[in-house]
Predict the structure.
Amino acid sequence: MECSIQLNALRVVGRYAANWTEPPKNTDTQMFSDAPMIGNGDVGVVIGGTPDSLHFYLGKSEFISLSEGAQKAMSRLILSFPQMEGASYHARQMISSGKVRMTFQKGTRVLALTSWIQATDTTSNLLFIRMWMAGEGELEAAVTFQPGRENKAPAILFNEKDLLIQDVSADEAESVDGEETVKVRCAARLVGGQSVCENHELAFTLRPKDEVTLVVSMMSNLDSADYKTQAVKNAEKMTPGKVDVFDVAHENWW
């Protein structure tokens, strides 16, 4: 009986999706956003920007300033495709799978992305962005991080091997009234393709029929005392096959 109820619920929810035919306007805000969203209960992501410059606004439930007693904007991941400036825009939020699918077209070139936050792991907190393109020529891409809006706490951005890493804090001080303040490491790596990590960027080239995945692990000092090392390991150990396994597990959870 329980299985029958679950399948029926999935059929009902599967009928519905949210669609965008132009970029959202209300994204980097403390108010409700009009943008596609993904999350797993610990990490939430609002997806804004345009086809040539996508902005993934990253938030985490415990990223709270102890000195201000308020939730802080954590980080922004920027995924750039300069050659897609002026492309058509379509995004679809799949309610039944917790994913967002985006398709951009400029001339004969089509760029498609599918994004999700892994539902089955609220410690490693993995963001997956799968990408492929069709059409002629190559598509240059680059990834970087920026601090969250109005967050004046220190943020460090650096490259390490084939990773792009950002360390952010919810407070400027190491501790407040004897309590350690919240700190997060975001570790990004490209899986399934070659990348160049230098000058605070992760750059890569998409070719027709290529499929690559950007994987980002976001861990705080409340997730693990060894959060910096663990976030790096989560990104380093990812392979195309493991991305597929995580994808299936995520779909099954939903």
